[in-house]
Amino acid sequence: MELRVLRYFLTVAREGSITAAANSLHLTQPTLSRQLQDLEKELGQKLLVRGKYKVSLTPEGMMLRKRAQEIVDMADKTESEFRAIKDVIGGDIYIGSGETDSMKYVAEVMTELQTRYPEIKFHIYSGNAEDVTEKLDRGLLDFGILIQPIDLSKYDTLTMPEKDVWGVVMRKDSPLAQHETITLEDLSNVPIIASRQMSKKYSADSGFLDWFGDKFEQLNIAATYNLVYNAAIMVEAGMGYAVTLDKLVNTSGNLCFRPLSPGLESGLDIVWKKYQVFSPAAKLFLDRLKEKFEKSSGIGDKN
Questions:
Q1: pLDDT digits (tens, 9 = 90+) for 217-231
Q2: What is the pLDDT of residue 25?
Q3: Options 3.40.50.2000, 1.10.10.10, 3.40.50.620, 3.40.190.10; which CATH number does 87-162+268-302 get?
Q4: pLDDT 10s digits, 28-65
Q5: Is the fold of 3-70 the same as that of 87-162+268-302?
Q6: Which residues of the chain have pLDDT under 70?
Q7: Please, are residues 237 and 193 in contact by the beta-carbon 8 Å criterion?
Q8: Cα within 13 Å of Cα(233), Cβ side
């Protein structure tokens, strides 16, 4: 497969029309159609369902779109890194992160570097640990920010100076809003909007299984969420109580946050693949993070 043809295929998938894609690519329609037919022959699969005015993807085409996008992203990232070598300091840095207030420390370093080196560009991908590590392992990210505890044996790490506090977001007019902290007994008979870390698959690694003990299976999980913005909307609509980290939801309006009791905290690590070769910009970014965190807490990297 040629990278050029994969770009053609992605353009067709985006436009939903060979004619529109050909215009966007500055190709003739017959030329683009022939390239796509050759791609189908090469893979031995039908990728497109061709209608009178539109095209749609077959299941095989949808699978190729995901893989092709990863390949193109990797190629673009590699080209950017090599272009950066000849520059004084510049290039793209790709970071994956879950939602955490501790991102402010990273943002401070990003701001410092971009002020001094305007050619450095940052690209942030938001997702949970599974999403971030998958892209990190594929080489699509330079760094990941992961919530502890999690298996970090594949990575080099830099521990961030603060821990995040787990608690419950609720409406201010809810009965539990009168409590200063939220206990396991408080959560036993209310609908819970659960974070991904609370799912059975991840609970053993996140600390939740120990906190909930034998009551874990008895929880009334009304809904689950990946990122917290939609969870806050469900809480405001009266759907339930969202278990989440502190400082992620705006509590200046109808919502409030109460920490768990006994307390449950999660540390955070910035991670990268072992033996990774960084671009000059990414190496500078990592060095500056180490300096900042060591000054803040005296905690260095674990190689």
A1: 788 989 988 888 999
A2: 84
A3: 3.40.190.10
A4: 889 988 999 999 999 999 999 988 788 999 999 999 99
A5: no
A6: 81, 83-88, 197-209, 296-303
A7: no
A8: 4
Q: In the block, which residue shows the tokens 């993807």?
A: 57
Task: State residue 300's pLDDT score.
Answer: 43
Q: Which residues share a beta bridge with 301?
A: 158
Neighbours of 137 (CB within 10 A): 13
Q: In 177-270, where does DSSP find H-type helix? A: 184-187, 200-206, 208-212, 228-236
Q: Are 55 and 18 in contact (CB under 8 A)?
A: yes
Is residue 281 classed as helix, strand or coil in its secondary structure? helix
| pLDDT for the residue numbered 272 | 93
Query: Contact at 8 Å (CB) between 292 and 105?
Result: yes
Asked whether the beta carbons of 294 and 300 are under 8 A apart, the reply is: yes
Q: What is the pTM of this model?
A: 0.66
Rg (CA), the chain: 23
